[in-house]
Amino acid sequence: MIEPMPPGDWRDLQKAVAQILAESGLSVESEKTIDTVRGTANIDVFAVDHSQMPPITYLCECKHWKSSVPKTVVHSFRTIVSDYGANWGLIISSAGFQAGAYAAARNTNILLLDWQGFQELFVERWYRHYLIPRIDREAEPLISYTEPINSSVFRRAESLTDEGRRKFLALREEYRDLTFLALFIKSRVDSFDLIDQNKCSILPLKNSLRSPLVECLPADLVEATALRDFLTILLSHVRKGVQAFRELFGVME
After folding, report:
1. CB–CB of 194/185 below 8 Å?
2. b/e sequence 90-124, b meaning 16+ C-beta within 10 Å
3. Sign of dihedral through CA atoms 122, 12, 88, 46?
4. d(Cα 232, Cα 230) in Å, to the nearest integer?
5. Is the separation of the CB atoms in 97 and 103 below 8 Å?
6. I need a surface site. Which of 84, 107, 206, 220 has the fewest CB within 10 A?
7. Pairing between strand 27-36 and 39-49?
8. Which ranges of the chain does DSSP label H, i.e. alpha helix?
9. What is d(CA 250, CA 163) in angstroms, rounded to the nearest whole number?
10. What residues make up the domain containing 164?
């Protein structure tokens, strides 16, 4: 899914929840004290989706416990969510929930989620609001250097020495398939996505792409199993390629 490993403790869980929500386009505050009709309450992660009108408010409780969450926690949190007037209350638990907790949350605006379930809830928004824009922004220079028709780049290549032109062609060949992959992802060519209609990741690419393309891409990239790792690895190769072209031509803004 988004992250390669589950959070190690409650701080990691809280931080990871806040990070994913923020990267998904929500306004986020951690450990926020809110005022309700019955007094104050401390919320692990407070998030507001301002892209909706009216805005949607999420209150999130992060439970990195060794035991499953009981119904008493759900009852208490449900009261806070109701008293504050939040749209949704999310309880993210590393050890699951007791049967009574599910009964207490039934037909309410409280969602009981494990770490995987939380990621699945926001993966599509994270993908659209974070992963694609990052690739779009950072891969654009490499796309310019490797696209089939770019008169500006070709004119600069003509001014290179014979050795420089050979290196230019070699770099274009080396980064061609990586650039095509970045272009497919950011432009959704042929509706290409790294998540399917069930919000499941198609990673690793070595298991989902046809063999010829897999063999032309970096091994660490096609073996990545989590979206964040995939993004980090892809961008590291993109930056390396951009740097190689810039060293050949000089900085080209």
Report:
1. yes
2. bbbbbeebbeebeebbeeeebbbbebeebbbbbbe
3. negative
4. 6
5. no
6. 107
7. antiparallel
8. 10-23, 71-84, 99-105, 115-126, 132-146, 151-158, 162-187, 211-216, 219-222, 227-249
9. 16
10. 123-249
CATH, residue 98: 3.40.1350.10
> CB–CB of 203/230 below 8 Å?
yes
Sequence-distant (≥ 6) Cβ neighbours of residue 179 within 8 angstroms = 139, 142, 143, 146, 147, 241
- Per the DSSP assignment, residues forming a β-bridge with 56 are 49
Q: Cα dihedral sign for 23, 29, 35, 41?
A: positive
- The tens digit of pLDDT for each residue in 65-97 reads 999 999 999 999 999 999 999 999 999 999 999
CA 139 to chain centre: 16
Whole-angstrom Cα distance, residue 127 to residue 224? 16
| Domain co-membership, 203 together with 102 | no
What pairing do the DSSP bridges indicate for beta strands 56-63 and 88-93? Answer: parallel
Model pTM score? 0.91
Number of domains in the chain: 2
pLDDT at 186 (0 to 100): 86
Residue 2 lies in a domain: no
For the chain of 253 residues, list the mean pLDDT of each consecutive stretch of 10. 95 98 99 96 98 97 98 98 98 98 98 98 95 96 92 92 96 95 81 77 88 88 97 98 94 53
The angle subtended at Cα 195 by Cα 192 and Cα 199, nearest 5°, is: 140
Output the six-digit token pair for 98. Answer: 């007791």
